[in-house]
Design goal:
The complex is a heterodimer of chains A (243) and B (254). Chain A is 65% helix and 2% strand. Chain A has a two-stranded antiparallel ribbon. In chain A, helix 2 packs antiparallel against helix 3 and helix 6 crosses helix 9. Chain B has 254 residues and is α+β, with helices and mostly antiparallel strands. Chain B has one domain: Sulfite Oxidase, Chain A, domain 2. In chain B, 28% of the residues lie in helices and 22% in strands. Chain B has six helices and ten strands; from the N terminus they run H-H-H-E-E-H-E-E-H-E-E-H-E-E-E-E. In chain B, strands 2-1-10-5-6 form a five-stranded mixed β-sheet. In chain B, strands 3, 4, 7, 8 and 9 form a five-stranded antiparallel β-sheet that branches. The longest helix of chain B is centred in the first third of the chain and has 32 residues. Classes of the chains: A mainly alpha (243), B alpha+beta (254). The interface between A and B is large, with 40 and 40 residues.
């Protein structure tokens, strides 16, 4: 890097890298809209689930038939929370899906996923992963240059959330729709039935909530103020100094 | 350096906003014309409801059929939700084997009619083995036997202006409505039989509406009156059924 700084073109490129935001405007806007819609989905999802906190496997299930899991919650039927919960769930699902699509399409278009999230061969090596895991175990704060990039665990987690868990929760949600499955029956038969889809929908939601908790914990450990600034204004505190 | 950039940004943003707003306007007009706006499109949840209804109507525009199952998949337990009507009229119908029960069909039809149970059974019978899924989360599979609503609608002669079919339970409380795509749908039944037998009282005897592509609460039990209309504005509170006032969407395709 030091030698290449003699070349004016590269020098400009470098200063651009420093000035360019940690997170692009589109990533920041979709991040926060997604956050709001996700919280609304979780709260309304709980309101819907509490009407019947029993999970089944297969096509059907009801009180009087064997369940897969009886969740330790009461049946909330008198308190009318699931009706408005359903309205809110589907409204926020539209916001979640549309901002998600915008994020994914722009990420593919700008090669954001390739540049920032797909781990390199080296990163996927045993040594590199062990180092990152050990850093996490020791709650080591990332070095300054690391706050400009993602480590291998972050990359794999974000990719799993974006390309595995999110599509899965959307498809299992649609698999519970008798209208949608009349057009695409495969989205429910692939999960083994409508009640199986409901059960998977629940566990993927739990996984996404766990991700949210870990994500927030990591943001706090890595420096809450700086990370929040980066996701709101686009810049790290360090990124401001060179300009 | 930043000023030309921000001017360009301003112009693109302006153009995008203008395109978006006019696009929304055109979309609203088209949606109205093609019946993609549900009666409960107002209020804070209206946008989501309209998107869901319009999206699913576009998706299911070719009379897609709800999934059907094998006889072996019929649930051993068909969960019963709610109680039969407690009024005296219904008790008399049960005691009399529904001999005096009538289904009246009126509204935007050429020949307003009244059918006895025997009249309905004289139409060609159809059956389907489909899901009955409640918005609460439970579900069962059952065989439903009856006459497709479309058969009865053809018999009475539906006006071209018809937009909704409204159906009332004889409990005097429950009623609901469906749009014409669901009213003409081959799996929308006036069901009088279940799992090879008569429709049990608990499941809506003598006749319940069965709307296969929507959740259970659209399949109202104990039907005694059907009205065909071009607008839900003056029926009930104008939201298509009592469900939206209680917090449930009129359209229950998901």
């Amino acid at each position: 890097m030091a030698e290449s700084a003699y070349l004016p073109a590269v020098a400009i490129q470098n200063s651009k890298v420093l000035d360019s935001p940690r997170h692009s405007a589109l990533v920041r806007v979709t991040h926060w809209i997604h956050t709001l819609s996700f919280i609304a989905l979780v709260l309304s999802g709980i309101a819907i689930l509490l009407a019947h906190p029993r999970l089944y496997w297969g096509e059907t299930g009801a009180v009087g038939t064997p369940s897969l899991i009886d969740l330790p919650f009461p049946f909330v039927l008198e308190l009318q929370i699931r009706g408005p919960g359903r309205y809110l769930h589907f409204l926020s699902a539209w916001v979640f899906v549309l901002t998600g699509l915008l994020y994914v399409l722009s990420g593919l278009f700008t090669r954001h996923f390739w540049k920032n999230l797909v781990p390199s061969r080296v990163d996927l090596g045993w040594k590199s992963i062990r180092r990152v895991v050990s850093n996490h175990m020791h709650l080591k704060r990332p070095a300054a240059e690391e706050s400009r990039s993602y480590n291998v665990l972050q990359r794999l987690t974000y990719l799993a959330v974006v390309f595995l868990l999110s599509p899965l929760i959307i498809i299992t949600g649609l698999a519970m729709s008798p209208a949608v499955t009349s057009v695409f029956p495969v989205i429910v038969t692939v999960f083994g039935g409508q009640q199986s889809a409901r059960t998977i929908h629940f566990f993927v939601a739990v996984a996404l909530v766990l991700f949210l908790f870990v994500h927030i914990a990591m943001v706090c450990l890595a420096g809450f103020k700086n990370r929040m600034r980066a996701m709101i204004t686009g810049h790290n505190a360090a990124g401001k100094e060179p300009s | 350096m930043s000023s030309p950039l921000s001017r360009r940004k301003l112009i693109t943003t302006g153009l995008a906003t203008a395109a978006g707003v006019s696009g929304l306007g055109v979309a609203a007009v088209l949606a109205q014309r093609y019946g993609l706006i549900p009666p409960d499109h107002g209020g804070i949840f209206g946008a989501g409801e309209t998107l869901t209804y319009a999206g699913q109507r576009l998706l299911t525009s070719h009379h897609s059929l709800a999934r059907e199952f094998n006889r072996s998949e019929i649930s051993k337990v068909a969960f019963v939700n709610g109680k039969p009507p407690q009024n005296e009229a219904y008790q008399r119908h049960v005691a009399g084997g529904f001999a005096d029960w009538r289904l009246t069909v009126d509204g935007l039809v050429a020949r307003p009619s009244s059918f006895s149970l025997a009249d309905l059974k004289r139409f060609p019978a159809r059956s389907q083995i489909t899901h009955q899924a409640c918005e609460e989360g439970w579900s069962f599979i059952a065989e439903w036997i009856g006459v497709p609503l479309s058969t009865v609608l053809n018999f009475v002669g539906v006006s071209a202006q018809a937009k909704y079919v409204v159906y009332y339970s004889l409990d005097g409380f429950w009623w609901d409505s469906i749009d014409m795509p669901d009213a003409w749908h081959p799996q929308t039944f006036l069901a009088y039989g279940m799992n090879g037998g008569e429709l049990p009282v608990d499941h809506g005897a003598p006749v319940r509406m069965k709307v296969a592509r929507q959740l259970g609460y659209k399949s109202v039990k104990y039907i005694s009156h059907i009205t065909v209309t071009d607008s839900m504005k003056h029926i009930g509170d104008g939201l298509g059924s009592p469900a939206p006032a209680a917090g449930y969407s009129w359209y229950a395709g998901i």
